[in-house]
Amino acid sequence: MRAVFQWNLGSRVLELGRRTLIMGVVNVTPDSFSDGGLYFDPEKAVAHALALLDAGADLIDIGGESTRPGAILGNVNSSATTPSAANPSPQTSSPSSACVSEADELARVLPVITALKKQRPLAVLSIDTYKAGVARAAVQAGAEIVNDVSGFQWDPAMRKTLAELKCGAVLMHTRGRPELWCSLPPVGDIMLLVKRELRQWTEQAQLDGLKRNQLVLDPGFGFGKSYAANYPLLRQFSELQEVGLPLLAGTSRKSFLGRTLARNGEDAPVNRRLYGTLATETALILAGAHIIRTHDVEASVEAAKVADSILDNQVR
User: Count of domains in the chain?
Assistant: First the structure.
């Protein structure tokens, strides 16, 4: 059985658990692993988001910095000049820099958030960022959820910022930063580690003022988890219900699926991972996931309807 929660986004409450919600992904980046920068242009990003909403997405997750394996992330600089929602002009980082500055990230995502809220005022938007300054400006521009892949660990200001904003927040588990993932030692019991750290990070968040009803947890498939670790995490996903918070899961197009679907010794490319993605998403819903984060919204909506019908013992 899947518990029902009321997720407080500040401006409204979303019910989680009666049916699976689908979160569509919009990467406003030139180097995303999943779509190769197809939506880096703000107008294309907005058009893609609208198409995802029309395809049945319940939420749209907008990100302006790739956290793909091997990505070089910058250290958060809280003293840097931060654009506001009203003035997203970037303080452009050096062309030689591999990192995305806070100003550059905001210049990518704020126009998309503003345009989407103008065209679809009721759309539920999420900002995918680990920077507190980006989170604040995005929420001021109309986002209602902050999806932090670092579990509020990479920016020391994030927890208190989210407490002040009173928005919804996704606390995701990761093992270290992307540039270090390839050198991480193996974990004996990945689910034990994920559960322990998610509990710890949730307690930290509450001590800094976040309410439990603001939080959704994500075990972070692929984020510092080896190929061998992702499948135990999938198999034991239902154990995360013990933490007592709603659950989000994102396996869409991930590299561990490419490895599983390899042909002739070569991993399946991103465009050949849909069916593997749907298999994992269905398993995750049956194991208790409340929200599925995905690139292929239409297919995931249909898979979720079937999985939800399996969960609903009133369906005949």
Answer: 1
Is 254 considered catalytic here?
Answer: yes
- The pLDDT tens digits along the chain (316 residues) read 799 999 999 999 999 999 999 999 999 987 555 555 676 788 999 999 999 999 999 999 999 987 766 556 766 654 333 334 444 433 333 333 358 889 999 999 999 999 999 999 999 999 999 999 999 999 999 999 999 999 999 999 999 999 999 999 999 999 977 777 777 888 889 999 999 999 999 999 999 999 999 999 999 999 999 898 999 999 999 999 999 999 999 999 999 999 999 999 999 999 999 999 999 999 999 999 999 999 999 999 999 999 999 998 644 4
Q: Look up the CATH number of the domain holding residue 72.
A: 3.20.20.20
The region that residue 224 occupies, defined by phi over 0 for left and psi between -120 and 50 for alpha, beta otherwise, is: left
Q: Quick check: is 33 in a domain?
A: yes
Say which of 136, 159, 254, 273 is annotated catalytic: 254
pTM of the full structure = 0.89
Active-site hit among 118, 293, 305, 316: 293
At what angle are helices 102-119 and 42-54 packed, to 10 degrees? 50
Asked whether residue 47 is domain-assigned, the answer is yes
Could you list the residue range(s) of the whole structural domain that residue 213 is in? 5-311
Closest CA to 101 of 139, 129, 125, 69: 129
User: Which residue in 214, 148, 301, 218 sits closest to 12, CA to CA?
Assistant: 214
Question: How far apart are alpha carbons 301 and 294 in whole angstroms?
Answer: 10
